[in-house]
C-alpha cells in the first residue's frame, strides 16, 4: 500500500477510472489532488473531503502548459512535494464512434495527441521537480491494451497510447537516477457508459469471452495494480507496462 499521507496527483480524476483511483487513494489516507477539466472533479473532492479525506481539485487542462504550471504551483504551495503522479487523463469517450484511418480529421488526430501524449509529458515535466527535491517519486501512466492488440479504426487513439508506452521507458531511464520510477498500465476494455457508446453493442460480450478470466472488466480491476506500482514494494520496477485485461494479450 502507498504510504499514508502520500501526496498523490490523479489527472482526469473526475470520473471513470480516475475517479475510482481517487477514491482508493483517499481511502488509503493519501492526500489526493484531482486535476481535471470537468466539474465532477470538484464535486468528488468536496464529497470526499466532507467524508474526512484530504482531497482537493485543481481545474487543469493537461494539454495546456500554463494550466499544468498552475497545477504544479498549487501542489508546491499546499504540500511542498508530490509522491505519486497518475497520468490518467485521456480523450477516449469524447472520440465518438470508431472510424477508418482515412476518415479521421487532422484536427482530431492532433487533439488526441495533445491530451493523451503531450499531456503526459507536460504534467510529468511540471511535477517531477516536486519529486526530485526528495529523491523519490512514482509516475504511473495510462496506456491501453489497444496498442498490443492493434485495434483497427482507432488509429489516432492507439498511436497516442503507443507513444505513452515509449515515453514510459525513456523517462524511466532519465528519472531512475533521481529515485523516481515510471511505469504504465495498459487496461483492456473497461465496461462503462463510454465504452458502450463507442463500441458495437455485440462486441462487449465477445470481448469478455476472449479473456482468460471471462467476465466484464470494471474500473475496480485496475485499482490494485496502480496501488502496487505506487507502493514501496514496487521500488525496483520501472519502465514497465502492465497489461490489465483479464488475460487477452501477453507481452
Ligand atoms: N475505459 C477503457 O476501456 C479504457 C481502456 C484503456 C485505457 N483507458 C484510458 O484510461 C484513462 C481513463 O479513461 P476512462 O475510461 O475513465 O475515460 P473517461 O472519459 O471516463 O475519463 C477521462 C477523464 O479525463 C479527463 N480529461 C479529458 N481531457 C482532459 C484534459 N485535457 N485535461 C484534464 N483532464 C482531461 C476527463 O474529463 C475525464 O475525467 C484514459 O487515459 C483512457 O484512454 C480506458
UniProtKB/TrEMBL annotation:
Q: Broadest EC class?
A: oxidoreductase
Keywords of this entry:
Oxidoreductase
GO MF assignments? oxidoreductase activity
Q: Which residues form the Ketoreductase domain?
A: 6-188
Stretches that traverse the bilayer: none
UniProt-listed InterPro entries: KR_dom, NAD(P)-bd_dom_sf, Sc_DH/Rdtase_CS, SDR_fam
| A Pfam family per the record | adh_short_C2
User: Known SUPFAM superfamilies for this protein?
Assistant: NAD(P)-binding Rossmann-fold domains
Q: Which PROSITE patterns match?
A: ADH_SHORT
The EC number(s) this enzyme carries: 1.1.1.-
**Entry annotated with the keyword Zinc:** no
Q: In which family does this protein belong, per the annotation?
A: Belongs to the short-chain dehydrogenases/reductases (SDR) family.
Q: What is this protein called?
A: SDR family NAD(P)-dependent oxidoreductase
Q: Which organism is it from?
A: Georgenia deserti
Q: What is the lineage of its organism?
A: Bacteria, Bacillati, Actinomycetota, Actinomycetes, Micrococcales
Amino acid at each position: 500500500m502507498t504510504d499514508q499521507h502520500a501526496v498523490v496527483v490523479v489527472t482526469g480524476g473526475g470520473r471513470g477510472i480516475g475517479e475510482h483511483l481517487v477514491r482508493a487513494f483517499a481511502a488509503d489516507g493519501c492526500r489526493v489532488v484531482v486535476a481535471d477539466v470537468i466539474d465532477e472533479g470538484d464535486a468528488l473532492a468536496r464529497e470526499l473531503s466532507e467524508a474526512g479525506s484530504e482531497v482537493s481539485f485543481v481545474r487543469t487542462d493537461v494539454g495546456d502548459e500554463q494550466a499544468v504550471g498552475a497545477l504544479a504551483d498549487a501542489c508546491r504551495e499546499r504540500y511542498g512535494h508530490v509522491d505519486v503522479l497518475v497520468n490518467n487523463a485521456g480523450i477516449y469517450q469524447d472520440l465518438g464512434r470508431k472510424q477508418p484511418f482515412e476518415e479521421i480529421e487532422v484536427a482530431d488526430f492532433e487533439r488526441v495527441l495533445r491530451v493523451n501524449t503531450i499531456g503526459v509529458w507536460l504534467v510529468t515535466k511540471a511535477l517531477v521537480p516536486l519529486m526530485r527535491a526528495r529523491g523519490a517519486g512514482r509516475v504511473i501512466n495510462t496506456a491501453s491494451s489497444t496498442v498490443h492488440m492493434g485495434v483497427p479504426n482507432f488509429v489516432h487513439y492507439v498511436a497516442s497510447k503507443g507513444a505513452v508506452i515509449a515515453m514510459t521507458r525513456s523517462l524511466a531511464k532519465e528519472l531512475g537516477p533521481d529515485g523516481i520510477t515510471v511505469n504504465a498500465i495498459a487496461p483492456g476494455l473497461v465496461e462503462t457508459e463510454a465504452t458502450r457508446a463507442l463500441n458495437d453493442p455485440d462486441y462487449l460480450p465477445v470481448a469478455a469471452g476472449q479473456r482468460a478470466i471471462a467476465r466484464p472488466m470494471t474500473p475496480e480491476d485496475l485499482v490494485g495494480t496502480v496501488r502496487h506500482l505506487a507502493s514501496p514494494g514496487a521500488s525496483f520496477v520501472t519502465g514497465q507496462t502492465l497489461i490489465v485485461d483479464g488475460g487477452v494479450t501477453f507481452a
